[in-house]
Design a protein that fits this description.
Layout (H helix, E strand, L loop, with lengths): L3 E4 L2 E4 L10 H5 L2 E9 L2 E2 L2 H14 L8 H14 L5 E8 L17 E8 L2 H10 L1 E7 L14 H12 L4 E5 L5 E4 L3 E5 L5 E3 L10 H12 L4 E3 L4 H5 L3 E6 L3 E8 L2 E2 L7 H17 L2
Parallel strand pairs: 7-8, 7-14, 11-12
Antiparallel strand pairs: 1-2, 1-6, 3-4, 3-5, 5-6, 8-9, 10-11, 10-13, 13-14, 14-15
Helix pairs in contact: 6-8
The protein binds pyridoxal-5'-phosphate.
Pyridoxal-5'-phosphate (PLP) binds next to helix 6 and strand 13.
């Protein structure tokens, strides 16, 4: 169990950790977040996550509450105090606390910072990766700035719940053109009939997944042909393989889409290889 949270400069017992009722994250979803996978107590793929955090904050004109170095120290200290080796570190930064008013609070209002960590059972995760998972599709209904990692995740939460109710682990959003954008908390990929890896391009309204970005590089270096090109859910069904990527799932094979089998219905060799390569990369870069 994770017992300690970091809240605005203090380490507190999680059960007693609180934020202000006029925190703008709570009032307006005026907050961004980041999630790092933890490997042996270290933050995986750190640079990509810090770079995206800084970008999300800049897009919303929220000031970075402390330097990357200081944030790394605080994140690692939260991990250490919870005695967690394999898991996830969650960081949320809101625009701070102010009397409720849609417009920004006075300049100088300090951003509010919360960090929590949770444990992941890597054996269970590996066994799930060996079996593959089911996803469903759902119409894209999110706002136009999904590239900013904000806590405004209601459409994602509703879609994830819809997936859970039918035994699926993820929902893929599908846009007006019938093209898959991404999952509720992961990016979507296929291995097409020619053996090319395909994932949606970042001109589309998607989150620029850090796992996605690193995997593009890792896969190219391993000799795969990678294309940032959209696909429909029918193309995914007739693909050789499909999989999702994210700090929570790493690289996870998809074997069912809306109850229909992808390829052979079994996880394929490409996703398994990419999972191993990505984990190797994340561990090698971990701080
Ligand atoms: N897409 C969405 C909507 C997400 O919420 C996430 C992660 O939470 C991802 C993609 C995957 O991003 P990352 O690989 O940085 O975890």
């Amino acid at each position: 169990m994770s017992r300690v949270a970091y809240v605005n400069g203090r380490f507190v017992r999680k059960a007693e950790a609180v934020v202000h009722i006029e925190d703008r994250g709570y009032q307006f979803a005026d907050a961004v977040y980041e999630v790092w996978a933890l490997f042996d107590g270290k933050l995986g793929d750190p640079d990509g996550h810090f770079a995206r955090l800084e970008r999300s904050l800049a897009e919303l004109q929220i000031t970075m509450p402390m330097s990357r170095q200081a944030l790394t120290v605080v994140l690692k200290e939260t991990v250490r105090r919870n005695h967690i080796r394999e898991g996830l570190a969650y960081l949320q930064i809101s625009r701070g606390v102010a009397t409720r008013d849609h417009a920004f609070p006075p300049k100088g209002t300090p951003p509010a910072v919360v960090i929590t960590v949770s444990r992941v059972d890597r054996d269970a995760a590996e066994s799930r990766a060996r079996k593959g998972v089911a996803v469903i599709t759902t119409p894209e209904n999110r706002w136009g700035r999904c590239d900013i990692k904000t806590v405004g995740l209601l459409p994602n939460a509703l879609a994830k719940q819809k997936a859970r109710e039918v035994g699926a682990v993820e929902a893929w959003f599908v846009d007006d053109l019938g093209l898959v954008t991404e999952g509720t908390s992961s990016n979507a990929w296929i291995v097409d009939g020619d053996g090319n890896l395909r994932t949606r391009d970042t001109n589309a309204n998607i989150l620029r997944g850090v796992t996605r970005l690193s995997l593009l590089d890792v896969a190219r270096k391993a000799g795969f042909n990678v294309e940032e090109r959209p696909f429909t859910s029918d193309e995914a069904l007739s693909a050789r393989e499909a999989f999702i990527t994210g700090a929570g799932t790493l690289v996870l094979p998809v074997v069912l889409i809306d109850g229909k089998t992808v390829g052979s219905g079994q996880p394929g060799p490409v996703a398994a290889r990419l999972r191993a390569l990505y984990i190797e990369h994340a561990k090698a870069t971990a701080v």
